[in-house]
Every structure is written in structure tokens, then in C-alpha cells.
Amino acid sequence: MSVEDSFVPSLAPAEASGVGSGERIFPPLNGITFSSWIYIEELSDKRVDPHPIRLLDYHKDDQLRWNRPERPEHSAFGVPHDQISPIDRSLLISTAEHDLAGLDLEEAKGSSDTTSRVALADVIILNQWTHLSVVLTRAVLKHSHIAVYLNGSLIHADKLHYILPNAGGAAANLAQTQGVHAMVGTPPYLRRPSRLRWKLSNMHLIEDSLSQDGVRLIYSLHPYYIGNFQTVGLEGGPLVPEEKVAFSLSASSTSELTLYKIRSMYSKRDSELISALLGISVHDNTTPLRVVPNGVLHANGTARSFGAVIMGYLGMRTFSPCPVSRLIESVGGSAPLFGLIVMATDSQELYASLKALVSAAKANSSLYTSMNNTRAYQTVAMLLEEKCHLMNSHILHLVLSLVGTLDTSKEMVAIPNITAFEDLLCDLDVWRNAPADMHRLLYEHLYELLTDQRKENLSVIRNSPLLSRILYTLFDQPQLIKTTNDIVFNLLSAIMQPLTDRTSLLKIGQFIAATLPLKGDDAETRYAFQMADLLPDVMSAAYENNDVTVTYLIYVRNRLLNMLANFLAHSNPQLYLQMSEQIVRVLGFDWILALFSPGVHPCTIFIGFRILSPSSITTTSWSSSKTALRTVAGSPTQTRSSGIA
Fold this sequence. Notes:
Keywords: WD repeat. By secondary structure, the protein is an alpha+beta fold.
């Protein structure tokens, strides 16, 4: 941008220029508002190549003075928004007349009545889109007022002389032969090498002074907004009348024309001005010119400029200012983001690639919907399973953010995306080869979801395959007990809290039955009674090839049985009866009797008696268990004669 510029011919057209009918008065009678989005990549060095950022520069000139393109000596005047200084990054605003369009205001001499300096060094950030708006309000009996807004916030207010209607003191009738033109960037005759690089996404000039609310509304539309503010006001109405919008330039709309086409399509006078600046024939039909059309050319009102012509022989790159999250759909959607995960070779690369996926899914609603519809979270789970050895706590937090269960702004977090929750968090095979601490952190997070007083979370988790996956993990990966000892049983207890569902109770019952010893095996009877005495052996076992030990089976079984016994012992009478009835109906009375089989660990028998206490078996279930009790006590005849009924 330091060696090129854009020329806007006939911004305030005279009778023979511009597109449309009538003449546009400049400066406007009530005031003027300049609005633009700026992106500064690199600033020039004030000691080596000081180069200002020329945002906009208006000038008036007659036709004869454009015949010397090498350095046109035309009358020019500053505008209420001009340059960002290369010295201290200040915005220099001038309404005074200058001898040369595009002159560096640091070198020009201006009075305080016509020049204002706004410090931007502390508020403008490189490599970030910044919205700049300058509002000049005209006053008749006193100084006009200028206000500068950055990202919707007022940062400067000052008194400043308004723009002179006739620059250079020319007679009013000269306005018939002169028009007002503008330049964005560095004019060709001031080009020199510089490291300055900056962009504009859109630019608007409104012939009225906007309020702070209006400026804030424009800022909320973001850099990729394309329009003229006709549907963004209250109740979908216009922010400003369309005849007040002098020009609207957007980098997303460009075209290629020649001088001959401009002459035939728009204005002969405009083509002559462009011809003088470029030094080519006005009838040229071969040299391509990049044109940014005026987006408000079709609207009501007097004549307007047809757009901005890119000046210079190097051309200029054009772009559509759009967030990456919006552009990702045009290059394959989530597929290239999955490719980044596949190519990750260390934890840092995996974190960065997963961060890109999370950011895109949160910022792009259509991408988020597409991932849900295609169950793309299963693909993410498969990719993470292959990268499990690279997992750490930061990557786990990103996964939780992708699922949506990690929201620090809320005291109680619901599970917003059941599909992602089941595919990423409930599928514990994803974390099989991850460090043991990752399992502990995952269990702790799931436990928090169940203990935040949200019944919806409990219902979702009970309907998910999480309980089955945890029980499978207890069998398949016994070494995890060393890091997840308490939290895994706390999590199971939270899932099984009264009154549990029949499916969950059946899964726990079948798991406990699978840990019972085979008939004739009395190895369990030789181990200590207390679970605290068994714990050191459980923690010190090697678990080679993921083989479970007898001590491990006893410990896990007794912890789960103790959980059920505590539920019965600490429930109110009504819940107590319901749980007892549910155990007998779902698991059967023979499941309880299996706990008393020969060779079973003594502590298992003890907890079985706690569950089998007379108050644990309801009246309705007692009659169905008569036969089983008689079998334990002896023959049916002997039981009947002993008076049991």
C-alpha cells in the first residue's frame, strides 16, 4: 500500500462528471462521517523509511492541471481524516488547505484550529482489524466539533474548523468546472520504497454526523459486512438515508475495466482524469485497470463516483475480509482440520491443530451443525486414539471445550452436545493408551457433571454407554486403579445414586457376578478381611499383560457391593423399599445368594448379609424367595415344619 493508491474520481461530481444526475455539494452542510476497517501488518521505521498511512485525501483541480502526471501541481485540501503518522502512530486530522495532495502532515505546517492529533500508539494493534471512524459536525456560529472513535469507543473529541467550501479562495462559479476527488493510499508521484504494509476491508463516507450509537452499530457489523446500512437500524430500518451515503467501497467486490470502457460506461471526464494520472491514452482499450465499484451507486440521490481505480504499475492484491472460520467451508470444511491432527507429531502440534478445530467449530455455526449431522466427532475420536501417547492436560481441556462441558462462565454446566459427549468422552477406548493421569482428570470432570445438581446430566449419562465402558475398563486395564482408585468408585456411585434405573443396576450386578470365584476355588478365603488391608497388594501388583489378580477382583467387588449396601442403609424408608424391590426384580434373589457361594471372600459374604437383612427384602419379594431360602436351610419339608412362612 506504500507504493500504490486508489483514486476515487468525482467523489462530489460536478455537472460533467460522476454517474447520475445533479451535483453533490461538498463539504456537506450538516457534517461528514468517515468509517473504515484497517489492518496494519507492518509500520515503517521512522528513522529509515518514515511513511504515513494515507487513509483518505480530498482535492479539487481543474482539467488543465492534470496534463502533467509526473508531478501534478493541483490545489488540494486536507479532510477530517487523513493520515496515521509514521513518527508516533498518531492520527493526524486536518481541514486546512495544502499545496499538494497526499502531503505528509508531519512536514506540513498547520494551526491548531485546523489540525488535530490523536494518539493511537497505545490503542491500535498490529495484525488485527481495527475500526476507525471520524465524525465532523458542522457548527455555524462557533467551531465545528470532531469526534474520533476506535472500535466503537470514543477516544478523542476536539474543536476544529470545518472544511472550506471553496478551496484556494476560488470563485463560486468555478465549481461548475471542478469536482471533488479523493485518493486512498500513496499517490504515484510520492511513491518510494517502504516496509509499510496495511489493508482496508471497507470504507464508507456518509454526508451526515453519526451519533456514538450509530458508530457502535457499524463496529458491531465487523470487517466482512457488505452493504450500505439500510437494514441495520432499529427494527430493520436504515441507519442513515441512502442518499446521504456518498460512497461505499468493499474489498470483496472488484472488477477489471479499461479506460475506454470507463469512458463509455460512466463518465468522459472521469476517464480523462484517470488518463492524466496513469499517462495512457484516454481511448486505451488494452490496459486492464482494477476497479473497486461504489456499492451505493444504484441508490437514490444525486450523482456519485463510480468507484475507486487502483493506481500504479505494480497492481494491488485484493481480498475478501472474512474470518478464517467462515472461509474454512470453501476449502473442505472440517476435513483439512482433521488433516492437521493427523500430521501432528508432538504434543505442541496436536494442541495447535485441535485448537484450530475447536475455534472453527465454535465460530462457525454451519460447520458445527455439519459435524453433528455427519457424526464427525467419531472421526476426531479415532484420530485422538492414534495420538494418545501425545495427550496432556491442555489437550484434554480442548476436548472438553469441543464437547461443550467445560464452561468456566457458568456455575453449573449442562451437557450441550450429546453426540460429541458420547463419541469423545464416553468412548474410553480413545484414552486407552493415554497417560494414567488423563483417566483421572477425565473421571473427575465426569464426576463434576454429576454432582452439580443438574438432573439432566444424570439422565444423559445413564442413557449413554459410559457405565458399560467404565466397567469394561476395570476389567481390561486394572493398572489404572493405582491413579483412579477413589474417583472411579465415586463416579460409579454418582451414576448409581438412588433411585437408579434398571439397566444400570443390571450392569453393576452382572459385573459383580463376573468377579465371583469358580466353584471349588477357595483362594479368596486366605486373604485379609478388611479392604484397607487388601489395598497395598492391589496398588503394588504389576498387572503384566493387563491380567487381573485375585486381590484386585476381591477389592473391586467389595467396593461395588459396599456401595449398594450403603445406598440401602442411608435411604429414607420409601426409597429403601423401592431399592430393595428393584434389586430383587432386576437381579433376582439368586444373585444375592450367589454372594454366599463356597470359596467367596469373607468380606463379600458380610456385605451380602447387609444387603440380605430382613428390612432389605420387601413383603412382595419375600414370597417369591421362599423356595431359595428353603434350599439354603434344607429340604422344603423341614423348612415348613420349622414354622417359616
